[in-house]
Amino acid sequence: MGDELVQLLPRVSVIVPSFNHKNYVEEAVNSVLSQVQDTFKLELLVVDDGSSDGSVDVLKALHSRAGESFQLILKGNEGLCQTLNRVIRDCSSGTYIAVLASDDLWHPEKLTKQLECMRSNPAARLCYSNAEVFGFDTMSGRRKSGKAQRYQFSGRVNNLLPLNNFVPAGSVMFSRDLFDEIEGFDQSGLRLEDWDFLIRASVRTPFCLVKECLLFYRQHDESAISRMRRSGTLFSEKMKVLRKNCKLLNPLVLAASVFINFALDKLIRPVLSRVAVDRF
């Protein structure tokens, strides 16, 4: 491919935030480096947020082997949202942005397929896909596998997202101008920062969808959702997001969301968890 043609290709900035994922982060970074890059230029930024488990040594060794394939940023701990905002605003130069958690993986054609989808849907400034879950869920005592979501939607989804977050966070690609328009990720301490980001984004743009599983989501005991479910705080964290965005939401949608999520997190899931424990 000639240099002039390469200069015309869109740039995709991928951010991999890492915090105490020594056992997973190298595999995550390699899944980005393995992306098919025929239709875009990749800018990979791997940022360690003050890990204390040896992750930094793993990343330094990987960076040494990979040469200039990615930029490694080491800094003190300040939290996920602050880290993402800082790196995207100060270090990235892509027209499009994608974020991969350091314990998850991507399909090799993830970025290529999403760029094709966004070109086919020029009004959409955010694209997502389905995900395949893998790993072990100790609450049910079962190894997890299969699609993360049965039902997903495209187009104007602002009245659907508050009812249920059907967008796997690590599958998302969005335009830099959308990020700037909604002022990035919330830094007030929300633990469901991805859902908050998506709700605010859905007010500004239609979403487009690649139905394939382009994200491989790792289920393990220390994932944020697992910790919230174990501690019984998932519903209260959802309510924080809904309260923050209540002025953006249709009142009927807001009421329905509270009801649905209360039933799911306070009634249905606890019963299913007890049944699973009794079985095994």
How is this fold's topology laid out?
Layout: H1 3-8, E1 11-18, H2 25-33, E2 41-49, H3 55-66, E3 71-75, H4 80-90, E4 96-99, E5 105-106, H5 110-120, E6 126-137, E7 142-147, E8 173-175, H6 176-181, H7 193-204, E9 207-219, H8 224-231, H9 234-244, H10 251-279
Parallel strand pairs: 1-2, 1-4, 2-3, 6-9
Antiparallel strand pairs: 4-8, 5-9, 6-7, 6-8
Could you walk me through the main structural features you see in this protein, from its secondary elements to its overall organization?
The chain has 280 residues and is an alpha/beta fold. It is 41% helix and 22% strand. It has helices spanning 3-8, 25-33, 55-66, 80-90, 110-120, 176-181, 193-204, 224-231, 234-244, 251-279, and strands at residues 11-18, 41-49, 71-75, 96-99, 105-106, 126-137, 142-147, 173-175, 207-219. The chain is globular. The termini are far apart.
